[in-house]
Amino acid sequence: MTDTKKVVPRKGVDKNTIWKAVYAVSLIAVCFGFYWATTQTNYIWRWNRIPQYFYYVDTVKVTAQIEGEVASISHKGGESVVIVEGGGTSEFYTVPGSNILVDKGDTLYMGDTIGTYQEGKMGMLMHGLLITVEVSFVSIILGILLGLFTGLARVSQNPFLKWSAITYIELIRGTPLLVQIIMWYFVLGTIINNLLALSGLPQVPSLWFGVASLAIFAGAYVAEIVRAGIQSIHRGQMEAARSLGMTKSKAMVKIILPQAFKRILPPLAGQFISLIKDSSLLGVIAIPELTKATREAVTTSLMPYELWFVCALMYLVITFTLSMFVQYLEKRTAEA
């Protein structure tokens, strides 16, 4: 009787593990290579100065607006009140805290410092980030509404609605966004504000011309996405709804659009992510969004590497958050 030995298969190294290790090594090599390249240019990294571009504490001076004499100094509720009299008039100045630099009876001239206090202020990058988020959010909402109605008009049987939608879509998609922003601000904006000035009405800030240009630009692409989503639903869905007595508009709202919405979520997410990045072009019309704020910070600080890295990271956080939100919506709609 011959002995039979059980053959145990040899466990090899998982190929996925190897490629993950290759990826990690490559990423480390790229980062190290970039760092080494910066050392060859004698660049000095100043990461410790980055937080002041998000939040900083400023020393605010309270100065005299008239010439006169300090009549009295009183303290009330953590504030100091200084009364200055001169030229037959008197003014009082409130200084938070108790850092008063004058005494009763001192003679003050216009512009002299009465006291100082510390005040926390928002940094340039944080201010630019908030404007970018605000502009992008409003533009996305308006772009969705405009794109939805334009997409429905694009598939309409009404020649006026259909050809109007086609004209709008082709005109916007066929011209660069930068040109549209400039035209909105320097051409349409000038005309609108001149008409408002002649009517005695307040003028429209440049921020809203930037929002309008982004919303109209996004609306054209959203319209094509909506059109493709509607046309991807089989015609039998509409015919079945009509046979049940539904009107065409009701069938579109109740049957077609809910199914199309699930299919158009991914391309909509891509379009909105692009819109957030395209908002960086609004700096050409003096809107202090994130890119313009970073450019101004680089000019004053001479820290291009650190600030542009932080700027890119902030855009990545915004777009990644939006991408995660859209994925959450996809899961919810898939479960419904």
From TrEMBL:
GO terms for biological process: amino acid transport. Its main location: membrane. InterPro entries: AA_ABC_transptr_permease_3TM (IPR010065), ArtM/GltK/GlnP/TcyL/YhdX-like (IPR043429), MetI-like (IPR000515), MetI-like_sf (IPR035906). It is a multi-pass membrane protein. Coiled coil: none annotated. It is found in: Cell inner membrane; Cell membrane. Residues 129-326 form the ABC transmembrane type-1 domain. Keywords: Amino-acid transport, Cell membrane, Membrane, Transmembrane, Transmembrane helix, Transport. Part of the binding-protein-dependent transport system for glutamine; probably responsible for the translocation of the substrate across the membrane. Belongs to the binding-protein-dependent transport system permease family. HisMQ subfamily. This is Putative glutamine transport system permease protein GlnP. It comes from Pseudodesulfovibrio indicus. The lineage of its organism: Bacteria, Pseudomonadati, Thermodesulfobacteriota, Desulfovibrionia, Desulfovibrionales.
